[in-house]
Model the fold of this input.
Amino acid sequence: MTEIPRLAFNDGYTMPQLGFGIWRVPEATAAATVESALRAGYRLIDGAYLYLNEAGLGAGLRASGVPRDEVFVTTKVWNNEQGRDRARASVERS
Done:
């Protein structure tokens, strides 16, 4: 896979500018899909609680053998989950 440009954060971490989204990936195939994406070189996986496939995302991440500290996983906080406590609960649930 071609080297993906990365964004630099103030703390020294860098994050890929291009990721792999799992919207509309069925839960039944999410693990294999995420594993394949990670083996192909993706290091940013974009998911969401409402996609109903986050268990597969986690399973694919574990199955890939890619160290967890090399992968960014993004999610969404929906409009009805605004505010500190609700947003925190949303992220923890995800």
